[in-house]
Amino acid sequence: METYTAMRHFADSWGLLAMALFFVGVIVFTFRPGGKKSADDAASIPLKED
Fold first, then answer.
1. How far is CA 42 from CA 3, 24, 36, 37, in A?
2. What pLDDT is stored for residue 50 in this prediction?
3. Above 90 in pLDDT, residue 21?
4. pLDDT, the chain, mean
5. Nearest 5 degrees, angle CA 45-CA 50-CA 40?
6. What are phi and psi of 2, to 5 degrees?
7. First to last CA, the chain
8. Could you report the per-residue pLDDT of 33-44, keeping only the tens digit for each?
9. pTM recorded for the entire structure
């Protein structure tokens, strides 16, 4: 099997699964119950003056 074919097969099967799991993880991390304060703090960084 050629290298390209092997990498293409991997990306079509396990790569898609890995990207989907990463996406779900980011969504869960973003909407977790204790994340509002840290998100609000991060959003206000550009507005703070030194």
1. 43, 21, 10, 9
2. 65
3. yes
4. 89
5. 20
6. -70, 160
7. 59
8. 888 888 889 899
9. 0.62
Contacts of 30 (CB under 8 A, 6+ apart): 39
Residue by residue, DSSP assigns 36-50 as HHHHHHHHTGGG---
d(CA 33, CA 11): 33
Non-local (6+) Cβ contacts of 29 within 8 A are 35
Provide, rounded to the nearest whole percent, the portion of the chain with pLDDT above 70.
96
Q: What is the mean pLDDT of residues 11-21?
A: 90
Which amino acid makes up residue 19? M
- Amino acid, res. 50: D
- CA-closest candidate to residue 29, choices 20, 19, 43, 39: 39
Query: Collapsing DSSP states into helix, strand and coil, what is residue 32?
Result: coil
